[in-house]
Amino acid sequence: MKVLLPYLKKYRRDAIISTLAVLVLVFATLWQPRLLQTVMTAIMAKDRAAVWQNGIWLIVLAAIGIVGGVVNTVYSARLALGVATDLRADIYRHVQSFAYADVETFSASNLVVRMTNDVQQIQGAVMAAFQQVTRIPLLFFGALALALTTMPQQWWVILAMLVIIVLVAVVAFRQMSSLFGRTQQLIENVNTVARENLMGIRVVKSFVQEDNQIKTFAKPSDELRDVTTRIGELFAVLMPAFFLTANVAIAGSVYLVGTQVLAHPAYIAAVSSFTSYLGQILFAVINGSFIMTFASRAFISMGRVREVFDHQPSMHFVDGPEKKVAGDITFDHVTFTYPGDETPTLKDVSFTVPAGQMLGIVGATGSGKTTLAQLIARLFDPDSGRVLIGGVDVRELPEATLRDAVAFVLQRSTLFSGTIAQNLRQVKKEATAASMHRAAEIAQAAEFIERLPETYDAPVEERSANFSGGQKQRLAITRGVIANPEILILDDATSALDAKSEKLVQEALDRDLKHTTTVVIAEKISSIIRADSILVLDGGRVVGEGTHQELVRDNTIYQEIYQTQKAKEGRLPA
Ligand SMILES: Nc1ncnc2c1ncn2[C@@H]1O[C@H](COP(=O)(O)OP(=O)(O)OP(=O)(O)O)[C@@H](O)[C@H]1O
């Protein structure tokens, strides 16, 4: 609840109006049966003037009640919507401050569910709270008091009705709460299966996995149907049970009054008011039970949102003016362990790359190549040792300086939906047509971009689905080079390019980004053969460093990789 208070404070005005409207609504609701009783008494006394006067008041009161209800609904909705919007924006902002490792701790899809589904639950609960939390106790105790003052001798009818209704409500809503919890879990499961299937639709189609996928989807989906049906069945029994109890109580009161009406004619008017109050008590109990079920779900969501806010970014950047750094890279006895892992992924790694040179990194899969590159971009901090750029420890660089200095192009880089130009301007705000063309030329992307009718304003669809694998990689390289970074990391970033295009990209990088230090991680030796220096990684350790010629001569692991690829491709130079 504490998590919501600051948000509620901002909408104090809406909260006050909505609460005042509830007071008006409750007053109108409670007073109507009393006025009806007065009208009936006047009818029996044949007092026309009193019938008219009280009848008009009855209509006015009903109208006031309607206005109160509408105002309360409108302001509760505004308040809930405002709180949800601010909350979602703040979660999003807080998540933006997370380090890469923090996002991994939660997982991206889990954070999305917290920002959407959980916030929606909270929105619903805030609205319900401002509609019902004041209304229910006021209505319950008000109706109870008025029912008792109207016909005090019938107290035991009220008590019997309450005992039965509360018992039924407790039993039914207990069951429903656990079923609602299960529904939430199953909705998540259905979403996960559907998302995985649709995102991997190519694999599904190419391995003819449709039938298996349908079966996998059917399991949570069928269970969701069963649980929802069970909730429906409980409701189907619950509502008639409530109304039956109330109607039996009403019928009982009418019968009892009927036996005494000759002695007490005023009972006829009183009984109509009494039965209305019984209805209001019933309404309060049912709504109270609903609110409690609703609140228990919302409390779970609030807890999940709170977890996000309580999670402090595991990495901080120093403040300071943005400055230029030189492009030389030094790893000084760096050891790194992924959060939650026992053994280090990088062990005592040391090397230096002078500015403007090209470093190749090779090694078996899982040997730590990507991890090493991630430390240059400071996606993680080492356990011990230092990573220096331009002679400065990356932990001492302001974030903007580091992001400007290092461009990281991945094998599967994400392009954002929008246009090509928008993607490029995310890296270089003031990118001109000429600078976009130059970057695209380096990445061998200009040729296909400039053939598109909208050229650089061509749309990029969600997950860049309207481009081929090779085109996506060229666009990602274009984005990587557009701001002339001091350091360019290409992590398997040319794997989808044919040998000729890859060679053209490398030549363009050599020619046009002479001062940029390039770190190339590649499966293929041909991609790094011209590097000024090559690191050979094995099990997180540097087991070789030198030029291609030196490593072919002296390094057994490099020789093995080289010989295997040579045998396969038969065209690698010696
Ligand atoms: N985010 C992560 N959390 C925990 N362990 C990880 C994470 N990323 C990678 N690893 C582990 O660290 C080791 C090195 O992974 P890394 O991706 O650096 O290897 P790589 O040499 O780049 O492999 P590949 O050539 O297959 O891309 C692997 O054992 C991997 O399972």
Automatic annotation (TrEMBL):
InterPro entries: AAA+_ATPase, ABC1_TM_dom, ABC1_TM_sf, ABC_transporter-like_ATP-bd, P-loop_NTPase, Type_1_exporter. It is found in: Cell membrane. Residues 16-297 form the ABC transmembrane type-1 domain. The keyword ATP-binding applies. It is a multi-pass membrane protein. Residues 329-564 form the ABC transporter domain. The keyword Membrane applies. This is ABC transporter, ATP-binding and permease protein. It comes from Lacticaseibacillus camelliae DSM 22697 = JCM 13995. The lineage of its organism: Bacteria, Bacillati, Bacillota, Bacilli, Lactobacillales.
